[in-house]
Amino acid sequence: MIDSDDPFEKIKLNQTTAKDLDNADQLANFRSKFVIEDPNLIYLDGNSLGRLPKKTKDLAQEIVSEQWGSRLIRSWNEKWLEDTVRIGDKVGSVVGAKPGEVVLADSTTVCLFKTAVSALLSNPTRSIILTDDQNFPSDIQALKAAASTVSKDHKVVVIESNGLEAPVEELLEAIDETVSLVSLSQVAYRSGCCWDLSTVTEKAHQVGAKVLWDLSHSVGVVPIDLRKDEIDLAIGCTYKYLNGGPGSPAFIYISENCHDLINPIAGWYGSKDPFGFDPHSQPQNDNRRFLTGTPPLVSTLLIEPGVDLVIEAGVQNIRSKSVALSERFLFKAEKELLPLGFSVASPLKHKNRGSHLSFSHDSALAIGQALINEQATIPDVRPPDLVRFGFAPLYTTFLEIEESIDRVKEVISGGGIDRWKDEMPVVP
């Protein structure tokens, strides 16, 4: 099962202890920058919702008391009008964008819908949207809605995979002159498999199609260079590895090569003169044209501390630790979890996956509930049979990796499955 090309093989196979690895960790000091009220809690769900940065907690009080409470509407002129772009530029620096190419906008699905419709309208003679079956379900729903919005002839074609690896060859073969848009999640939410951005984008451009990437499970933990890879469009959430908080706004990236794309949901905030209140106002000349209504300022502002931490740490350093954490977990799981009925449901080669590992088990939901309620360990479950373990390198330690596997074993041996087999939480 071990990847012979794995540069972290020595970490897995030698006698280095988790404590030694934590002592040598160059990112170890970042853990103290997050709110960790229960040191016994092992949080392995950062791929769904990142921990709370301490500065965010302080900033929330300042926003409510000062910017809103004291300055009131004056804060629009003092700072709020530019915050979506200013903080968007910080996100842009994480994904290799130029200033002005990334703006914070709406929810991830709304951002995807707007950019998809815009791309489809720019090439009306083509009717095919390609995606794969590992894409996030909400993305596929939004793509279908975008297709039906543009015309009755547009349709979404879903390429089938084996459930583990990205269907690279099948997708590349399907990209032809009928394709208007290819839309994929760079890192799949279930298996964690990771697409190579440049390979898909290059093939799409060869036939005159555009590509729209969802970076939700990769931004902040996988190195991304949108300009280098000549990406047309991208969107992504900010509440996973960027630690922006529940429901924090997503971002939109529009390449300067797509300057002619039009926001299909126009609104006052994306116009040249937002406070002119002119229904005939033209859109902004830059990517602010993809803004629509009044932004959720409180949650927008709270994104910044988490993004600052990612910038300070450096995505390459974050990726290096991410791979080391996941490889350590995978190596121990092979020995200690697979004999207990688990099977690996993620790509084995680290270059082919993001920062979470999925394991299949017939009692996945019960195991997840037992870990949360009895073992102070929070993974997440994706029905019907997957337990996901997400590794957020800014605060996850190697000791936690080792202890989490011991806690999974305790659930199995201690009867946790039987105690929780009938529980069906709304959020698994």
Describe the structure.
- The protein is an alpha/beta fold and 428 residues long.
- It is 38% helix and 12% strand.
- The strands form three sheets. A seven-stranded mixed beta sheet has the order 2-8-7-6-5-3-4, sandwiched between helices.
- Helix 6 (137-150) links the parallel strand 3 (128-132) and strand 4 (155-159).
Which helices and strands, and how do they pair?
Blueprint (H helix, E strand, L loop, with lengths): L8 H5 L4 H7 L17 E2 L10 H15 L5 H21 L7 E3 L3 H14 L6 E5 L4 H14 L4 E5 L8 H7 L4 E7 L11 H10 L3 E5 L18 E4 L14 E4 L42 H5 L2 H10 L1 H22 L6 E2 L11 E5 L3 H11 L2 E2 L1 E3 L3 E5 L7 H16 L2 H5 L8
Parallel strand pairs: 1-11, 3-4, 3-5, 5-6, 6-7
Antiparallel strand pairs: 2-8, 7-8, 9-10, 10-13, 12-13
Helix pairs in contact: 2-13, 4-10, 5-6, 11-13, 12-13
Per CATH, what is the topology of the largest domain? Aspartate Aminotransferase, domain 2
Task: Kindly report how far apart the N and C termini lie.
Answer: 29 Å
Biggest β-sheet strands, sense, barrel: 7 strands, mixed
**By CATH's scheme, which homologous superfamily of the largest domain applies?**
Type I PLP-dependent aspartate aminotransferase-like (Major domain)
Summed over residues and divided by their number, the pLDDT gives a mean of: 94
Q: What is the helix fraction of residues, given as a range?
A: 25-40%
| Secondary structure category | alpha/beta
Give the strand line-up of the largest sheet. Answer: 2-8-7-6-5-3-4
Shape: globular
Return residue spans where pLDDT drops below 50 for at least 5 consecutive residues: 1-9
CATH class (first level) name of the largest domain: Alpha Beta
Assembly annotation:
single chain
Specify the number of helices.
14
Record field, number of beta strands? 13
How many domains, in number, for the residues? 2
- Topology as a string of helices (H) and strands (E): HHEHHEHEHEHEHEEEHHHEEHEEEHH
